Amino acid sequence: MSEEKTTISRRGFLKGAAMGVMGGTVLGMGLFSYSPWRKSYFPEVKRKLADIGVCKSVKVTNISETSWFENAVLMKDIKEAGGLLVNQYSYNWPPFGDGTGLGKGSYEKGIAKIKHLLPNNLEEAWALTEKLSVSPENAGGFAALIEIEELDGRKRKFLLDSGWSYKWMDECFKREGIDRMLRDNEIEAFIISHEHFDHFWGIPVVFKYNPNITTYYPQGFYPEGLQYLKDAGHKGKLVEVKSGELNRIIPGLATYNFPVPIICRVYGEQSIYVNVKDHGLVSITGCCHFGIIQFSETAFREIKYEKDQLYGIYGGLHISPFEDWDPKYDDLVLSLGKYGFKKIGCNHCTGILCAKKFIEAGYPVIKGTARHRSKDTAYLGNGDKIGYGIDV
Questions:
Q1: CATH classification at residue 354
Q2: Is residue 8 over pLDDT 70?
Q3: Which helix (H) or strand (E) holds 273?
Q4: 377: number of Cβ within 10 Å
Q5: CA 370 to chain CA centroid, nearest Å
Q6: CA distances from 222 to 34, 191, 213, 228 (A)
Q7: Which of 50, 60, 292, 312 yields a CA-CA distance of 20 to 30 A from 118?
Q8: Residue 144: CA count within 13 A, CB half-sphere
Q9: Hey, is 311 helix, strand or coil?
Q10: Do 36 and 174 share a domain, yes or no?
Q11: What digits encode the pLDDT tens for the residues 21-34?
Q12: Are residues 122 and 187 in the same domain?
C-alpha cells in the first residue's frame, strides 16, 4: 500500500474515532466491525446475481439432528485416537470397526466385515459392527427432509444427509415416513452435505429403500468416501458438485459447494439455497463448517433473490457444537443480527448455549419440542418442522 493511501485510511479512521465519546466507546468495544463505518474500508462486492428461479414455499422436517448422544464420549474417542486432524476412517467407529481398537482401523478393513450385508441386511450389519467398533452406542446422525412447493402448487421432496448409525437412522426414517417416501420414489434426489461420519456414514439406509436415487455430493471426497457410495449399494445417477459451484436443481432450489478444510480429514461442504417468492432467500445447511458469515455473504454475492432479503436459515450452524463457549463466539452471535433473518431454525450442531444466546438477543428463533432424544427446546429437535412461506 502506498504512503498516500495509508495516510488517507488513517485519516478516515481517525475521523470516525473523533465523533465523540459515544464513537470512542463503540470503537473501544469492538463494535466498529459491525457499524456502517467499516464498509468504507472494504472493496465494493460485485454481485453475480445468478437467477435460480423461485418457489412458493419450503418446509423442512428434522429427521434427526442428534449427530451423537454424548459430547464427552465423542471428544474422548477423538483425543485418544490422535486428535481432530486424524483420518476419521481410522477411528474404528461403526460401521467400519474391525476389532483392532481405537485409532487402528481403516475403511478397507472395516467395510470388508459388512459389505456383503449392504444395503438390505442392515440389522445384521449393525449387530456385527457393534461388536467390532468403538462407542457404537454414541452414534446418531443428521438428516432432514426438504419439501419444495412450486408456484403451481406441485410438491417436490429432497433428502439432505443420511446420518451415521444404521440402527438409529432406520428408526428415524420409519418414524417420519422417509422409508416409504424413498421406496415410492417421492423423494427425487439425495443431497450429501459433506463426508463427515454423522452426515454420511448412514447412506446404506437410504439405498436400502431406493438404490437408484439421484445423488449429489460435493467435490473433495476422499477415495474411501467414493468407494463407500458404491459399496453401500448405490446404482443411480451420481453428480459431483464442483468446489465454488452453484448447482441449480429445480426452480428456486440450488446447492453451493464451499471448498473448506474440515476436521477429521474432510474437505468441502455442500449447502442449499431456496428462493421463496415474495419472501426472500432461505439458507439450509448440514453443519455450516464454513461459517454463517460466509454462508450469508456467498448468497449475497452469488444469487439473485426475492426482495433482496435473506429470509431464513436452518440447520447446524456449528458455532459451539461441544458447548465449549468462547467469548469470541459472541461476535458471531452479534454478526448474525446484521443479516435481518426473519426466521431462524437451528439444531444440535449449533450448540444449546448458542441457540439460547440467539433467543436472548431477540432473534426470531423457532423453538423445538425436545422429543425423540433431542435435549433442549432452544433448537429444532428430532421430528420438529419449520416452514418458510408456509405455516407449519
A1: 3.60.15.10
A2: no
A3: strand 266-276
A4: 16
A5: 20
A6: 38, 17, 21, 10
A7: 60
A8: 33
A9: strand
A10: no
A11: 333 333 333 444 44
A12: no
